[in-house]
Amino acid sequence: MATTTVTDAGSVRIITEVIPATDPRAAQLASGSQAPARTSLQTQGFRRAHPKVLGTIHIFTGVVHICFGIILTLSEHRNPSLPVASGILFWLGILLLVSGSLLVESERRDSPVLVKACCVLSVGVVLGTLVATGIHGTAITRITPGCEKPEPYRARPEWCLHMESKMLSNGLDSILVLLGLLEFCVAVAVLAFGYDTVRQHTYTQLAL
User: Fold this and answer.
1) What sign for the dihedral angle of Cα 37, 105, 94, 131?
2) Kindly report the CA angle at 40 between 37 and 46, in degrees rounded to 5?
3) pLDDT tens by residue, 165-188
4) Which of 133, 125, 130 is nearest to 82 (CA)?
5) Which is it for the CA torsion 37, 42, 46, 47, positive or negative?
6) Are 127 and 134 in contact (CB under 8 A)?
7) What confidence category does residue 60 fall into, taking pLDDT thresholds of 50, 70 and 90?
8) Other Cβ atoms within 10 Å of 82 Cβ, number
């Protein structure tokens, strides 16, 4: 049974109602007051980075990498360039798809474990983009495969006499380098917000 106490303090009247723990209203008040605090302590800081937007960027660039990988693999199956031979377009594209999917999911779910997974994958994306930038930069400065200095009494292939293919290849590598820079910035942003959120969550657990 609820009890009500009225206290007069000057021109202010304070009414205090004590509700027993068995009252259904007590459970409603408890759930309504605890849920926002739990969300704030866990992933509210991470959500300030708009993980859904960052995840969408990763998914889009991942699809672009895989599409370029398929096209270049089919067109360069005889003399594959360095990016095609290394497979960087495929494994980086898959890594971006997985990372982007987790970032989008972290917008919907309040889970510190999911935030930690996003941070781990973002470290992989940072390392992957650095490796990819080195590979594409090397491919730009490298001679087209099959067009190296020919052996004595052997002529260079006909396509080596035309620079259009090399210019097109360099253009694609330059685009992928710019995409890698975008992916690097997104991954660093995820790491910055994610690390802060994980650190606060760990401190809260130790305090409790």
Assistant:
1) negative
2) 165
3) 778 888 889 999 999 999 999 999
4) 133
5) negative
6) no
7) very high
8) 17
